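Supplementary notes for students who missed Thursday's class. We covered one full example, reproduced here. Read the sequence, then the structure, then the short commentary at the end.
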Amino acid sequence: MQMQWELELASCIKEEFTMSRKISDLRKAEEKYRALLDKRDKLNAEALEIRKVRDMLNAQKSSLLHEALEIRKSIAEKAAVLHEHKEKRNEYNRKAKELIALKKELSKNSPGTDAFREMERLTREFEQLELRQQTESMSIAEENKLIERMRTLLNERSRLMDISRKSQEIAGKLTDLDVQIDTLFTEARKEHEALVSLYSEIRGLEERMKQKLDEASIVTGEADRKHRDYLTKKEEADRAHREAMEMRSLILEIRKERKEAYLEGRRAIEEHNETARKLLLDDEASSRQVEKQLEELLKKGKISLR
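Structure (token representation):
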């Protein structure tokens, strides 16, 4: 019976050692579990901050692209107006060139100043002949010759007067053409000035749009880097979470084993107590039997052991 008690004591010591080791493993697992949770939460917090910066950069990029798009619309609108001014300028110049060509043609067909000078010369000669007719004494033949010359001068002067009127008409047309040409060139110059002004504005807008697009490109690069940093942090946080869940499973397993060991120990103790109680009862029964035999020995004077 003593050997049995020693075996049971050794078993209890072994179980106690096993339980102590499980408690130590459990504490280590719980500490690592809490550390992994802290690491996960920290990484998630860092990822959240990075995401905020990334979202801010994306919003800034969207704003810059929107501004660039609005500038592009303004460029398109001004370019359309510029095209209208260019068309008008070219049209004014085209009409002015047509009038210049017409002016050259009229000037070519114009009698010019020679007709006026010839008409003045004929007028002076006619006046001289008229004065001679009135003041000089002439024969009939001479007077007829003078009258014939005067008639010729009148006819020639009449012809020249017609030429003069035509020349005056052409001169008037040429003057009108000059006014029209000047007006057309003035309008063409105004359209050209408006065109140059709009072209300068468009160049300025194009520079602004390029600047916005360059800024958007830089911000896009920064946002992409932040996004990659965010994904890296999230991956690390997810990995820490998976490790924490694995550690949690280990903790639950250790707790389960510890509980089973505890229940097994309780059952072993209960069985041990029951065995000890039975042994104690058996010892008491044996003691009573010995006492009874001793009594019989005393009464009969002999000892009988069976």
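Commentary. The radius of gyration is 66 Å. The chain has a mean pLDDT of 80. If anything here is unclear, bring it to office hours.
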